[in-house]
Design brief:
Length: 218
């Protein structure tokens, strides 16, 4: 994504980006229950200062994903499939409402159309970073078009990025997600809020199953 394109969307704050990476890793079982997370090591690995890492861990602690310790560490708490399903069901409820509102607000989809075509043209050379950025843009642009700041903030706090997990090939997930994104955009363009809602529900529900399969793989 070019600098010009990035300027057209709201970039997630560092704490949100860090929280989304850690949240997905915990939900997918990449971090195990009882594992210690060092604030310093996380900052080094993610290429950010300790401040956004500290803020991200505080967010995760409020969600029940980690327990904060006094020595600049956090311990991953035990979660179960119900916890994962609850998380994604909240995303489904809120993202479906957001896409309905965006459609009813006659959202201009020209920017998303351009992003979709750009991604499709370079699908064989697409990097993970490019896909992550594209995926974020698609969702956050719809949230913004819903025109409800509280809804936008709640969705930002739930964001966990692409839900690939460890049992799905990244390339397969990208192709399916891009196809689903195209369906969502199509129904927004068609001013069909119910179909847009159904497409969003299917999209996030598939992500949930990816993460559940990864969690059960442990």
């Amino acid at each position: 994504m070019t600098t010009l394109e990035l300027e057209q969307v709201e970039i997630m704050p560092a704490r949100i980006r860090v929280a989304s990476i850690l949240r997905k890793a915990i939900l997918a079982g990449e971090f195990q229950s009882g594992q210690k997370l060092s604030l310093t090591e996380l900052g080094k690995n993610l290429g950010v200062s300790r401040t956004p890492v500290r803020e991200a861990l505080q967010m995760l602690a409020s969600e029940g994903l980690v327990e904060l310790r006094m020595n600049r560490t956090a311990v991953v708490k035990k979660i179960d499939t119900k916890f994962i399903m609850d998380h994604y069901e909240m995303r489904i409820l809120l993202e479906c409402e957001a896409v309905v509102r965006a459609t009813n607000n006659q959202m201009d989809t020209s920017f998303l159309d351009a992003q979709q075509q750009r991604i499709l043209q370079k699908i064989n050379e697409l990097t993970q970073d490019e896909y992550v950025a594209y995926n974020q843009v698609l969702h956050t642009t719809i949230w913004k078009a819903a025109n409800n700041q509280k809804l936008y903030n709640f969705l930002m706090d739930l964001w966990n990025g692409p839900s690939i997990g460890r049992t799905t090939k990244a390339t397969d997930h990208r192709l399916k997600s891009i196809e689903e994104h195209g369906e969502i955009i199509h129904f927004i363009q068609a001013r069909n809020p119910e179909k847009a809602k159904q497409a969003m529900d299917k999209h996030i529900r598939r992500s949930m199953h990816n993460i559940l399969e990864s969690y059960n793989f442990n």
